[in-house]
Predict the 3D structure of the following.
Amino acid sequence: MKITKHGNSLTQLTRFPNFFPMNCYFVCETDGLTVVDSTMPGAAKEILAAAHAIGLPIKRILITHSHADHVGSLDQLHAAVPDAEVLLTHRQDRILRGDQSPEPGEPSGKMRGSYMRRTTTTKQFYAPGDRIGSLLAVAAPGHTPDQVAFLDTRDSSLICGDSFQTITGIGVTGTFRIGFPWISLATWSRAVGVETARALVGLTPSRLAAGHGNVLESPVAAMTEAITVEQSNLAPTHGTQIRA
């Protein structure tokens, strides 16, 4: 697992960096580490080893969304650090338990990608707009209906899940890229994804930490250009309606 430090508080952990890069993150708090995502099954020992190398305990575990490449090691990690808080939204908890029924008013797009039932549950729910330590939770649907991004209020680092990807250039979640098409193929609603991307740009992040690809410094201009590209892909032509 490749370990890369960004700024004073963010550490990127990357599995299979030369094949199918999957990121999870440590956010350093005064009491220890917050883990965001856990990649595919089998990563728990590597995540624990990275925390040991840093010399701080894992105090809480968050996920951006419930795709298997983000929650695959959740159960194993929680079993290894049972005293760490696992915090979820109600929607994330429901999907992790196998309930994919839509919320009222949501687009009817199919939930694409790989989902895994997890046995880890929580009694500690949060909602977008809540603070979790230094992190502000921000609703970020589009790639999945339950996705949440996290903005570090100390330095404006943004952990965005799969709202953007930064492999073969930056792209919004629904943008198809030949070099790494998996994000777009697993996207639930491209139209909602563009709305979320615009909202995340409005946070003026200092760095962008995506689920797949390198962390980008000063990313706002690149994020804005990526939105322009995806919006042109979605633009109706000859009377065709935009579809999620």
